[in-house]
Structures are given as C-alpha cells and as structure tokens.
Design a protein that fits this description.
- A hairpin with a 2-residue loop joins strand 1 and strand 2 (16-28).
- The protein has 12 helices and 14 strands.
- The radius of gyration is 24 Å and the shape is elongated.
- It is of the alpha/beta class.
- It has a 6-stranded mixed β-sheet, sandwiched between helices.
- The longest helix is centred in the middle third of the chain and has 18 residues, at 179-196.
- The protein has helices spanning 44-51, 69-73, 76-88, 105-115, 120-133, 149-160, 179-196, 207-213, 231-235, 241-246, 274-282, 316-324; strands at 2-13, 16-28, 33-38, 59-64, 67-68, 90-93, 167-171, 199-204, 216-221, 224-230, 258-265, 287-296, 299-309, 328-332.
- Bound molecules: adenosine-5'-triphosphate and magnesium ion.
- Magnesium ion binds next to helix 1.
Length: 354
C-alpha cells in the first residue's frame, strides 16, 4: 500500500547539509498498522512528510495505493492537480492537532471537504457522520478550546478521514496525551483500521504504542531503517533490538561464571515443560532471573531469563537442547565483549543467529 525505495532527503540551510533520510526502503502492506520508531532526529517526521510529498524527497520514490507520487510531483501543473487528488486520499494526524480555534468542531472536520469543493449540505452530513465515528457526535458545535486533548485528537482524526482516505499517516498523534487517553486514541486507530480497512502508518518514539497496536514495525536510526518486519517475525529474530525493547525481561547474572539466556516461547513450544526436562536431562540447577507473559501485536508471547551454572562453553549442549525444542534462545552477554575474535570469551547477543 505504501512503498518507498531508496528514499533520501537532504536539507540544505545556511550552507549546511543535513541528511534526514538516507536510502529508506519501506513497505507497508494494505490493511496493516505499521509503526516506525526511533529517537529524536532519526528522521521519522521527514519520512512521513516525504511520503505525502509535503516535503520533496531529494531522491528515491514513493508509491501509495499503486500511484507513484514522486513521479507526479515532478511533472508540471496538471500532474500537480493529480497529486493533490492523490494526497486527499492520504489522511494525516498531527501531534498538536492543528485545529482552527475560530471554527467549531464540525467546521474543522468540514475544512478538507470545502477544499475538495463539496456543497454545504454534503459537507455537514459527512462531518457529522465522521464525528459520530470518533465518538464526538455531541460536540459538533463546540470550539476546540472547549475540548480535552483526547477529544481534540478525535477531531483531528475525523478531519483526516474526511476525504475517505485509504491510508492514514500519524506523526506522534499521542505524544501530547496522558497514558489513558493515549490508549483510547490508539484503540480508535485500531478500530478504524479494522472497520474501514484503513492502512495506518504511525510514527512514534514510544515502544508501548508499537506494542499495543502495530502489526509491523521498523526501527529508524540516523535516517536509515535498521530493522523491520511483522511483530511476530521480529520476536522470532534472535538478537532483534526491537524485539528486546518490545518485550524486555530484566535480571543480571548472580556471578561471573554463569550463563544467562533469554528464552522466548511462542506457539506450540510454550505448552511443553521444557525447562524441567532440561534440568532433569542435564542435571543442572536453573535459576529464573525474570519472566513475563504479554500480548504483543495480538500474539501471546512468553519470555524468561534463566541462568545456568558455568560459562557458555560449558553449556553448549543444554543450549542446543533448548533450541531443538523449538525455543528461541538469546545468549545474554554478562561480560564486556572482547575486541578480538570471539574464541573463548563471552558471546554477544547476536550469537543466537547461528
Ligand atoms: N526543515 C528542515 N530543515 C533543516 N533540517 C531539518 C528540517 N527538518 C528536519 N531537519 C533535520 O533532519 C533530521 C531529522 O529530523 P526529523 O524531524 O525527521 O526527526 P524525527 O525523527 O521526527 O525527530 P523527533 O522525534 O524529534 O520528532 C534532524 O537532524 C533535523 O534537525
Ligand atoms: Mg518528528
């Protein structure tokens, strides 16, 4: 539904160049909620502004619903009209709502329809329908100043839906809201995704947002996507930074000569008594340092941090046993990773990839 290839954006101001996007290949499938997470300055807002062509990409292409927007942007006035029409099929939700304070709630929602040339009666009917959809039918005549933050964002969402978009882009839509309001807005986005088949691309710096609503996610650093995939695939990827952040388990080794493992259970493996089998078969004492069961992207996942006596080299066989049982094992490095080749030293987290 949304594809970017080699998308780059270089800002030039006062003789300085800032590379905000550095060859971003993103693929958002139809009907999914896709989260892009990253630290401040990673390029998240630049990405979203380049996707709806509010910002002209320096290079690369953007395709939304099968239409190459970057090609349209480069081709004179007639194409510009086409681009405007294409853009009206992309809804946009902002962190600070961007409502007009002089207009009523209903008039705010009608604004994009005015621009599209709808008649007053049609606009009003559509606006009331959308306000009903976001749970604000009774506030149509209010002014933005009379609404709470969460209600303002609902108006922002209703306005974004005015042109019957197939895609909704959201830039930190919940960052200005308290946790409970955040949950209700995320639930609304999820409901709209399900009810209307709306594809949602949301940008956030909060892992909880990704955890509660996203089907897929990407991690951005310095203008690049460094990890991406469905939440299920990420959780099954050994050493995935996103998976560890989505689903953290704590706990430190009790002594130096111990092996600490993160064991992730999903699917059928979760139901077998693997840990007690391990203890019996290899006669090892296993300590549980931390554990959690959670729902991530609609999947039940369990993760446990366990400690085995002895260093990694002494535990190769038990670790092999756990992997054979279909569990995902990440070896947690307790000691600093040595600079040289890893011969006998501790094992970096990526070891699990083998
Ligand atoms: N209009 C602009 N002119 C010049 N530089 C810009 C402009 N917009 C963004 N940048 C720079 O591009 C980089 C990426 O900015 P961007 O706003 O995309 O990051 P972000 O991930 O959205 O950050 P945040 O989480 O703080 O919103 C930053 O170094 C920023 O200073
Ligand atoms: Mg931003």
């Amino acid at each position: 539904m949304i594809t970017t290839t080699g998308l780059s954006k270089v800002y030039r101001s006062r003789g300085r160049e800032v590379t905000a996007l550095d060859g971003v290949d993103l693929h958002v499938r139809e009907g999914e909620v896709y989260g892009v997470i990253g630290q401040s300055g990673a390029g998240k807002s630049s990405l979203i502004r380049c996707i709806n062509l509010l910002e002209r990409p320096t290079s690369g292409t953007v395709t939304v619903a099968g239409q190459d927007l970057t090609a349209l942007a480069g081709r004179g006035p007639r194409a510009t009209r086409e681009l405007r029409r294409a853009r009206s099929r992309i809804g946009m939700v902002f962190q600070h709502f961007n409502l007009l304070s002089s207009r009523t709630v209903r008039d705010n929602v009608e604004l994009p329809l005015e621009i599209l040339g709808w008649t007053g009666k049609e606009r009003s009917r559509k606006a009331l329908e959308l306000l009903d959809l976001v749970g604000l039918a009774d506030q149509a005549a209010a002014h933005p100043a009379q609404l709470s933050g969460g209600q303002k964002q609902r108006v922002g969402i209703a306005r974004a839906l005015a042109g019957d978009p197939e895609v909704l882009l959201s830039d930190e839509a919940t960052s200005a809201l308290d946790p409970e309001t955040t949950r209700s807005i995320l639930q609304l986005l999820r409901d709209l995704n399900r009810q209307l088949g709306l594809t949602v691309l949301l940008i956030t710096h909060e892992m909880d947002v990704v955890k509660s609503v996203c089907d897929s996610a990407a991690l951005m650093e310095k203008g690049r996507i460094v990890e991406s995939g469905t939440v299920a695939d990420l959780l099954a990827t050994p050493g995935s930074e996103l998976a560890a952040a989505l689903f953290p388990v704590g706990g430190d080794a009790s002594a130096e000569d111990r092996t600490v493992l993160d064991v992730t259970f999903h699917g059928e493996a979760a139901t077998r008594p693997v840990i007690s089998q391990l203890a019996r078969t290899y006669n090892v004492d296993i300590s549980i340092l931390g554990a959690a069961i959670d729902t991530v992207g609609g999947l039940q996942v369990g993760r446990m941090r366990i400690e085995l006596p002895g260093r990694y080299e002494e535990n190769v066989v038990p670790i092999g046993f756990l992997r054979e049982q279909g569990l995902q094992i990440d070896v947690v490095s307790a000691e600093p990773v040595p600079a040289g080749p890893v011969a006998t030293g501790p094992v970096p987290a990526k070891e699990g990839a083998r």
